[in-house]
Amino acid sequence: MLKNIINIFLFFALGTISHDLHAQLLENSLFKIYRSEFIAGTVTQFRLNSDSTYYIKVIEIHCSLCDQKQLTKMIHSKGKWIQRNDTILIESGKKLLIINDSLIRPLFLMGINLDSVPSDKAYKYRENIIKGKTQDFHLVYDTYPDGVAKLIEDKHRMRRDEYEIELKPNGTINSVKYYWDNKRKKRIK
Description:
Layout: H1 2-21, E1 31-39, E2 42-49, E3 53-61, H2 68-75, E4 77-84, E5 87-90, E6 95-100, E7 103-106, H3 119-132, E8 137-143, E9 149-154, E10 161-167, E11 173-180, E12 183-185
Antiparallel strand pairs: 1-2, 1-8, 2-3, 3-4, 4-5, 5-6, 6-7, 7-8, 8-9, 9-10, 10-11, 11-12
């Protein structure tokens, strides 16, 4: 009897965990890649995989006076993630807010060490950066459940020329949209 109760408990626990492992954000995707254009002078990517792993890594550094090794060490992270309603929780206990499928906002500072700043000033600094939306991650790459590219976006950059490519499940191009200074154009300038 006790063995059956334990098995039933484990069944429900695993059912709950597996629901979290395949979060709504990746319901129809093998993985998604998001990009933030300015985190402490870097371009940073955030990859969410359907096996509940994530990677945050610096892909470009635009800060010539920064200690680049220390900066990448402070930003790079990988581990497990779960989704709870509109929040992504990563292993380090940090939270990211899901604004929509294309936009994720970290609710913590990345690449900035506030240990030497008084706590009241550190709190205001943190809140200003989060409200300023400079650390927001925008969707740049989405896939179908089999890993074929679904959507490729080169938008929300500091450049003016942008594009968006939507692909069919068989890998052929469905549509291509070009933008210049946030306005739709017929071709890239």
